[in-house]
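Tutorial handout. Part one gives the primary structure; part two gives the three-dimensional structure as tokens.
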Amino acid sequence: MYQDFAHAYLTEVGAAAGRMLTRGQDAVDLLHRAAVGGGRIRAFGNGGSSAIVRSALLQLQAHTGRPVSDSMMSPAAMAYTAQRGIYSEVFARSLAADIRSLDLVVVASVSGRSANIREALSSCREHDVPVLALVGGDGAQVEPTRGMVWATGTADQQISEDAMLTALTLAAATALGPATAPLATRVDKHLHAVAAVDTVRLGAFLAEATEAVTAAIRTRRPIYVLCPDGGPLALAGEHFAHNLHWDAPLGVEGVQPPVVVSDPSLADMSAIYNDHPNPAHGVVYQLRSAAPGDVVFLLTYDAASRTTQEAIHAAEQAGARLLLLHRSGPTQPHTERLQLPQADDFALSALVQSVAHLVCRTSRAALSAGGTRSSVADLMAQDLAPLRELSDTRPS
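Part two.
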């Protein structure tokens, strides 16, 4: 069943991304004018959408060598500001000081109805700032004065987010200029990578991961989601940890929010790199708290790298259940390791995000089922978004 679900889900993601990318060149042009021209870009999203927009802007910044992205307030600044005003106004306030100097604002919102996103868009319309708005459905709910509404064509939260990350990442890479591969080449390569995912192995990995996650949540064992390499893969890990902590268990009777340990905070990371030259130190230090029965998801580019090997060793020494997602390096024929097809660093994060969404949906279904086995149709319908009782911005 998990194999069939993985195949059905990835097929839908590929279709949604393909629909979006028929308009990809328009997005490339918007990003190119802002980024390569040395312009200023801001980006906003809630929940997993915040990781999506930051991943794409990280791509632009990494390849241009300039601080083209000034996105998302820090968690500390956001919490401090939100306690002194309405959260829906926080992003708009962060735009107010420099909106006249911005060349592009990127927003991502599956519903397109989040109050804070609407506030930001209203400011952009008032000051005639171009907007690249990624939204679910047909996009009719968002009408920026200038720029582009980039719709996924589906209201499914996770499929929309995966299509958004794929499309925005490929557009950002192409926006760097004529020296880079054209969009059509990137699209073809990525959609082939999605199609090349071994759904037999992925199904087995899902079964193992679902059992591990549900057991950890029920027995109150910590779940670690770590990416020792950093970069866009760590943002996919942040999104994964968010889904495990908030979405998978939310509202399930008798189930408490799990303890989820993710990558170090900025405060931790700056101290680690200042005091310890070994880039694996942060993850290894975190895993000193792990114990038998804990679950460790390790996201990495190369399973053979020194950093990854040190993290693997730390998890094994702790006796934790290790589930490794990687692109290259040694593999063993068991379900705890899943090797994904070759893709560049940023496109790989889109594949990992899809796997993470699969795990969260199967885990929620298992937590809710009470021993009843879900069907593929049930899992495809297990959109996590309507279950967010803490949100007052759900689609009507």
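Part three, for discussion. The beta strands are 41-45, 104-109, 131-135, 147-151, 223-226, 260-261, 295-302, 321-328, 337-339. The chain has 15 helices and nine strands.
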